[in-house]
Structures are given as structure tokens and as C-alpha cells.
Design a protein that fits this description.
This protein is an alpha/beta fold. The protein folds into 2 domains: about 140 residues, Response regulator (Rossmann fold, 3-Layer(aba) Sandwich); about 40 residues, Winged helix-like DNA-binding domain superfamily/Winged helix DNA-binding domain (Arc Repressor Mutant, subunit A), CATH 1.10.10.10. Helices cover about 45% and strands about 10% of the residues. It contains 10 helices and 6 strands. The chain has a 6-stranded parallel sheet, with helices on both faces. Helix 7 crosses helix 9 and helix 8 packs across helix 9. The longest helix is centred in the C-terminal third of the chain and has 15 residues. The relative contact order is 0.14.
């Protein structure tokens, strides 16, 4: 029986990937056996999307235990409601943490809770970063909503689910980098860290005692090694580095 103050035990940490056709301390006690009607908490800042998700999950015998429109609401629901998994958008303007910061809080407070993310990200480095952040499932926002229950079932079974389209982007990374990408130099890592901290090229040059031209070259070399094609992809990558 689920109750709000109990400890959660769940199965293994990061097992193998689920096929797309397959299908803590979270806040409460959950049996090791697969639940007959799993309780899911969902989060998205668009009411129409939340409504559609609820309909799909309930048609697949899942109980929507609560719905939130932002990070603060999601974290509050996790304190109040028993659940077996979370399905959340990653970009939700509003109160509370958002993006990678939200994932970091979920990982800290509920390390065993299966988390499935709805994402429009396409760059393989960003997708890989989300998986490394502990996400149990990545569902493409443009995919059929029928993938949602598949992803949640896989996550609760201790597997990793990735939508077909997103999987192809991840596989493209392997084609682009048949060997691991070249390691970043100390200077390149420093530039990325300062960019992550919000400094621009001129500010980094002033702080490091190097010319803006040198900083720009080190930034460009880091992007090349990471497979980032433009400043937007770099910005998205830096977002995944922020806690």
C-alpha cells in the first residue's frame, strides 16, 4: 500500500535500453513487483498537453496521481502524492527549478524515482547528457503519444527508453564519432566553464589574461570536438552543464 511518509525501494540503477516497441528514495513505498495500475505524476506548462497525456495514460490503465505546470508544482506533488514514476517536460517557465536544474533536484531528493522526459532536443550530445543526468526515458515531443505508456512501463521495469527518432540522433553520434571525441584541453574546459557561468568572450579574456581572439579560437575548438554546429547548440549544451 502506498503512503506519503514511507521509504521507497526500487530496482536496479541504470540497466539496458528498452526497445521502442516495448514498453525513490521517491516519496513513498512501492512494491518491487510491477504495479497493476501504476500511479504517475505528470508535468507540462501547457494545459492542453497535460489533458492529452492524462487521456492516453488512463486509457493504458495508468492512474494520473497529479499534474503540475512548473517545477515548483512538480516537487510539491512529489511530497504529497504517492507515485511510481514521473513524466515531465524539461522546459517549463514558472516558479521552481527548470531544465537540468530540475533533473538535479529530482535526482537529489528522489534518486530511485523513474523519470521520463518529454523533449524537443535533437543534438546527440544534449540527449546523451540527459541520459547521463539519470533520466530513464526520452520521448520526442513530436512522437505519437502512444509512446508515453511504453516509456513509463520500461522505466518502471528498470530499463531505459528512447523514442525511435531520438535514438537515431544518438546513433548518428556514433557514426560521427566512431572513436570517442578528442579530449578538451584545460584551456578549452576553462572557457566552457566560464561560458556556463554566464561570462562572454571579452569577460573571459579579461579574467584569463588572454586575448578575445584566443578565447574565440578555444571556444570554436571545443565546439568542434563536441560536435556542436552553432551557438544555439553550444547554449543548449551549456544548459546541461548547469546544476
Amino acid at each position: 500500500m502506498l503512503h506519503a511518509d514511507s521509504e521507497l525501494s526500487y530496482t536496479s540503477s541504470r540497466p539496458h535500453f528498452a526497445e521502442s516497441s516495448l514498453a525513490t528514495q521517491v516519496c513513498r513505498s512501492i512494491s518491487q513487483e510491477f504495479p497493476v495500475q501504476p500511479r504517475i505524476i505528470i508535468a507540462d506548462d501547457h494545459p492542453v498537453v497535460l489533458h492529452g497525456i492524462r487521456i492516453v495514460l488512463e486509457r493504458h490503465q495508468m492512474d494520473v496521481a497529479g499534474a503540475a505546470a512548473d517545477g515548483a508544482g512538480l516537487l510539491q506533488l512529489l511530497v504529497q502524492q504517492p507515485c511510481h514514476a514521473v513524466l515531465t517536460d524539461l522546459s517549463m517557465p514558472g516558479p521552481g527549478p527548470d531544465g537540468p536544474e530540475l533533473l538535479a533536484v529530482l535526482r537529489q531528493r528522489h534518486p530511485e524515482l523513474p523519470v521520463v522526459v518529454l523533449t524537443g532536443a535533437r543534438h546527440p550530445g544534449l540527449l546523451d547528457g540527459l541520459l547521463r543526468d539519470g533520466v530513464h526515458g526520452l520521448v520526442d515531443k513530436s512522437a505519437d503519444f502512444a509512446e508515453l505508456p511504453q516509456a513509463l512501463h520500461a522505466a518502471m521495469a528498470g530499463q531505459i527508453f528512447v523514442s525511435d527518432q531520438l535514438r537515431r540522433h544518438l546513433q548518428a553520434r556514433d557514426l560521427l564519432f566512431p572513436h570517442p571525441p578528442a579530449a578538451l584541453s584545460t584551456r578549452e574546459l576553462e572557457v566552457l566553464q566560464l561560458l556556463t557561468d554566464g561570462l562572454n568572450i571579452n569577460a573571459i579574456a579579461d579574467r584569463s589574461g588572454r586575448s578575445p581572439k584566443t578565447i574565440s579560437r578555444q571556444k570554436a575548438e571545443a565546439m568542434r570536438k563536441l560536435g556542436l554546429q552553432n551557438n544555439q547548440e553550444l547554449y543548449d549544451y551549456l544548459q546541461t552543464r548547469r546544476d
